[in-house]
Amino acid sequence: MGSEALSLIGLLGPDLLPTQWQRRVGRDDEGFQTLLKDPGFPEFKKDAIEVQIAVNRVTRRVQALLDQQ
Question: In the predicted model, what is the mean pLDDT of the chain?
Answer without folding.
Answer: 86
